[in-house]
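Problem 3 from the worked examples.
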Amino acid sequence: MDTLAALIAVSLNAGTPLLLAAIGLLINERAGVVNLGAEGIMLVAAVAGFACALHFGGSGAGTALAFGAGALTGAAMAALFGLLAIYLNTNQYATGLAFALLGVGLSAFVGEGFVGQNLAAPAKGVPGLEDLPVVGKAFFSHHWGVYLAMAMTALAAWWLFRTRSGLTLRAIGESPESAHALGYKVRAIRLAAVAVGGAFCGMAGAYLSTVYTPMWVEGMVAGRGWIALALTAFATWRPGRVVVGAYLFGAVTMLQFHLQGLGVQVPAQFLSMLPYLACILVLVLISRNPQWIRLNMPASLGKPFTPNA
């Protein structure tokens, strides 16, 4: 039971940045915009969050400020992407890839002076609950960022499916022409959705550099932005399924260390490939039913919109 509790705990920790980034990308895609720049946005936000935590301290208010810095950085980068893709009608896929590459280079340049520096380990655990047998270690021994991600996911799901503004966003993702005919400012709403999605990705990056591994390492996002993009398709654009997918991939990521600890004789390189192999396998399986994907996918996903008047 202790081993199971430990596996659940590390899975929740590893799945949190995936959950934050995937929910942000889901909001983008529900509005009809595909942002392939998540990897680069997370990297730049990670170095911004780390720099903020290093200046103000890596625990308590310092971590909160780091999350805020990551969110603002992510929102700014995503808004720039949105201006290009939404208002100038550049190709969303090519622009997103450009931002992914930009983020890799920019984060390496900005973070060069932070390499080798560490933050103090942040305080973790829910007082009074973390000492419970098994359950406490599994669910109540985490940093507050884990619970923040869960709360924001629930809030995003409620907003998308239970509010008028969420319905408007989803309507724009289905038929921007109809929404425009009803008087909605389609491009402005899409830009706002992209900025909010970028803020989520930014918080994911800040979590990685200040909580998950409280240090800055070049390229530390390590493909999580791409996995988060795949998660939105895996979850068929449903927040609840994103939660399951994020923690499932978190478990697969951490499984390699548990197998090595148990003495399983498998090459370390193969174990490191597990999360990405799982991602490819899931995408292959859901692609076997393209009609089901089309029924769930926003109809205007990736398609530019230019108002006639």
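Problem 4, a separate protein:
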Amino acid sequence: MAIYFIRHGQSEFNAAFQGEVDPFIFDAPLTSLGFDQAARARETIADLGVSRVITSPLTRAIQTAKTIFDGIAPIEVQHGHHELLKFSGDVGRAPDNLRVDFPDLSFDHLPTRWWHSHADPDIDVPVEPAESFESRIAGFVARLEEIQNEDVAIVGHGNAFQHIIGFMLNNCQIHRYR
């Protein structure tokens, strides 16, 4: 039994981001390079025996999971290991909107607003407090402990995985967590 972490491929936000200036690309999709990175990762995972995939609800993670695992293993969308909300690219979309782009996946179990929210609805990018992020990731790690007797791939995000394993994964890097 193994759990593998896979960071999403390059997103449009990643490609446009310069320092601390937010390019305001909300729920950024993959770039063509990101899709290429995911296609190369697909070649690598064949020998891992992954039987289940859990992806973050952010578009770039879903696109990465589908590129790597469609036809190989079932893909589940779960929140909890989504990115630390600091920039526009980390703002999610409601399940109804995601369902339009990914009709073959289930979003019924997601709350309407599964990403960090702020009391002021006029704030476009409500920065997630560190305590909230840390608590959310701790809950996700606790749920990972429930996974037994199967090889699972978790497709997610740099800051979330870094918080768990202590270093930043490259785009589409595969890391054996357990």
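Solution to problem 4. The first strand starts at residue 3 and ends at 7. Residues 15 and 31 are 8 Å apart (CA to CA).
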